[in-house]
Amino acid sequence: MQSKELRKRSFFATLAAVFWSFVGLRRLADYEKDVTSFNPFYVIGAGAVGVGIFIAVLLVVVKMVVA
């Protein structure tokens, strides 16, 4: 029988899960575990970091292509 105790995950575990979600490679079992264990503020922060990194990479690629 599964324990009803919810274990909160660290920010870095949240960051890794958000990264894999951006890539689109997340297993259903991991997703179901994430839904019950993530801190919503960590998810928002990790998403903001991921978007910032994505935009920075796009800017670097565009500058390299244009130069």
Comma- or semicolon-separated keywords:
single chain; 67 residues; mainly alpha; 3 helices; disordered N terminus
Blueprint (SSEs and pairs):
Blueprint: H1 11-23, H2 28-37, H3 40-66
What does this structure look like?
This protein is an all-alpha fold. Helix 1 packs across helix 3. The longest helix has 27 residues. The relative contact order is 0.15.
Helix content: over 70%
Task: Give the amount of beta strand, in percent.
Answer: under 5%
Radius of gyration: 16 Å
Q: So how many helices? A: 3
For the largest beta-sheet, the strand count, sense and barrel status come to: none
Mean pLDDT across residues: 81
Please report the total strand number as a whole number: 0
Backbone shape = elongated
Helix-strand string: HHH
Q: Which ranges are low-confidence, i.e. pLDDT below 50, for 5 or more consecutive residues? A: 1-5
Task: Decide which structural class fits the backbone.
Answer: mainly alpha
